[in-house]
Specification:
Length: about 170
């Protein structure tokens, strides 16, 4: 009887833990809903907060220095940013590298003008577990999610930016 009770307790604890972890991993960030805030410290030491960018369209890009698709899309994000920053477009790139790879990330980011933060200096848990890179979210001027980086095609290119961001910028 004791083994049965102990085994049942372990199964119950596992079940409850699984439900809790599922909620953390698959946070409910949905297109059309208000984006949770992201905040932290940029690599240059300045504080940042997604909420502070209300009134602007913000692309939030979760990436890693070892991720080839991440590095391939960055020049296109930069090109679009340079053309549209004056219209109210901003980019926050959050690097998900381990501490041992931060220097690689810094070297890559020297080529780009967008804001850059490290995962350990950022608070984004309400976005859920970022299980793939790149993962890119687009948030409009009112703080509404327009692209969820954890669903659909993860690829960001000029065409996607023109189709998703440009209409938002012209509606200001």
């Amino acid at each position: 009887m004791y083994l049965y009770t102990t085994a049942m307790k372990k199964i119950y604890i596992f079940f409850i833990s699984s439900i809790f972890c599922y909620q953390l991993v698959f946070a409910d960030v949905q297109v059309g809903q208000i984006a949770p805030n992201i905040e932290g410290k940029l690599i240059d030491g300045q504080s940042y907060s997604l909420n502070a960018y209300r009134g602007k369209v913000v692309l939030i890009n979760f990436w890693a220095s070892w991720c080839e698709p991440c590095k391939e899309e960055m020049p296109q994000i930069e090109e679009y940013l340079l053309k549209n920053r004056s219209k109210g477009f901003e980019v926050i790139a959050i690097n998900l590298d381990k501490s041992s790879s931060i220097e690689s990330a810094k070297k890559i980011m020297k080529n780009y003008s967008f804001r850059f933060a490290l995962k350990n200096d950022s608070h984004f848990s309400e976005f859920g577990y970022i299980w793939r890179v790149p993962s890119t979210f687009i948030v409009d001027q009112r703080g509404i999610v327009r692209k969820n980086g954890l669903t659909g095609d993860p690829k960001v290119n000029i065409q996607l930016l023109e189709e998703t961001v440009s209409p938002l910028l012209s509606s200001q």
